[in-house]
Amino acid sequence: xxxxxxxxxxxxxxxxxxxxxxxxxxxxxxxxxxxxxxxxxxxxxxxxxxxxxxxxxxxxxxxxxxxxxxxxxxxxxxxxxxxxxxxxxxxxxxxxxxxxxxxxxxxxxx
Length: 110
Fold this sequence. Notes:
Number of helices: 0
């Protein structure tokens, strides 16, 4: 969806049942259109409301990873995170964010 106010395109999926000490990967396939950059976010949320949002910007022209940031709210739920860009040919890239949740029942849903 794109809004006239922000010009932001957004696709998302809510996920429940985030487990402790588990690795999750979110990925999309993109091809250059009228935008130069794409922003992705993965944010494991706990039953207690804590989360750690991992935000990544990718350059759709080159496939380069731009900034990678982590924002913590209330309780940090992520022990490790990374991003990747893979050129799959024909101008297409597979962009991904990987997170590992903490090994603590107080920080992740069980």
